[in-house]
């Protein structure tokens, strides 16, 4: 298969879809990988490393998209990339389509086969979302601590406090991968941490993991309001797979939060779990609503691209190899979890949660392809 590796062009996105080791694995399996010049530069990978791994350099993104039967990326295509997509091309990347109606329509109109990292499953796990969730969860506390500093617009509070002075109150809404990693960092820095989740079994697990060093609360509007009313840092970490995130902190609740507190919405890719969330960039990461500082960067892990690219390729490469070695149809027949990643196919929207979020028609994948040979994954 011919595989294209373009350079990411989203604002301050320095990650790249494959490390040189990933390219070597694909070329070693007999595939051709076309790499856009300087694609890996932001992650610290030189063109020569990709050439040594068997990749073929091309000058422009247009050439890479034109050459590739499968395009491997990190982030969803942005407007300048829409015309580069073509019928029957396989796009393997994070798509996060739920809040991106125009991108969904473009992929359907152009009949692109869109396989989204974030909806591929392995049992009850989301194996390709986990590594970036780990990065974003840990980063959320770092950036929260930074923006709590007065010169950065916050309340002027040190997350861990000092002897004789209270530590900051950190409220984490959502106890999944993002929430757990955020809690690890916040506890490590000495903050007082509260985790809110609706899954009581998960709260029991978290209580065990943290040896009762965090407070756990069953989610309700009342508990959220009570917790955020004395929070210095609130981290939104709620995920509904493939769908728009629920708005658990509403605009009217912001009046309860201390002035100068910081909200970090890690769910921004799926529309965010704060009503006042709108996506920001690393160039212009924050804004105020009702006196509360919001940080809603939609590609947080792009700030630590070397760590992120290694972590991402570790997770995505086995699936990329399956798609390349077997071809799209056989690969999804052999892996029911990979099937779950197919969001668009043959001009149809094949992921129900996205269709529901956008009010578009949902077409089951098995009505378009015979999937009888599929295993349980």
CATH topology value of the largest domain: Rossmann fold
C-alpha geometry: globular
**Major beta-sheet overview:** 8 strands, mixed
Total DSSP helices: 12
Number of domains: 2
Report the portion of residues in β strands. 15-25%
Low-confidence stretches: none
The main sheet orders its strands as 3-2-1-4-5-6-14-15
Mean pLDDT: 95
**What separation lies between the terminal Cα atoms?**
24 Å
Tell me the name of the CATH homologous superfamily of the largest domain. Answer: NAD(P)-binding Rossmann-like Domain
How many strands? 15
CATH architecture of the largest domain: 3-Layer(aba) Sandwich
H/E element string?
A: EHEHEHEEHEHEHEHEHEEEEHHHEEH
Can you identify the CATH class of the largest domain?
A: Alpha Beta
The percentage helix is 25-40%
- Gyration radius, rounded: 21 Å
Secondary-structure content class: alpha/beta
Please sum up the structure shown.
This protein has helices at 20-28, 47-52, 61-67, 101-109, 130-147, 177-188, 200-209, 221-228, 305-326, 328-334, 336-339, 352-358, and strands at residues 2-5, 32-36, 56-58, 70-72, 90-93, 113-116, 169-173, 192-197, 215-218, 233-236, 262-265, 286-289, 292-295, 342-345, 348-349. The chain is of the alpha/beta class and 377 residues long. A hairpin with a 2-residue loop joins strand 14 (342-345) and strand 15.
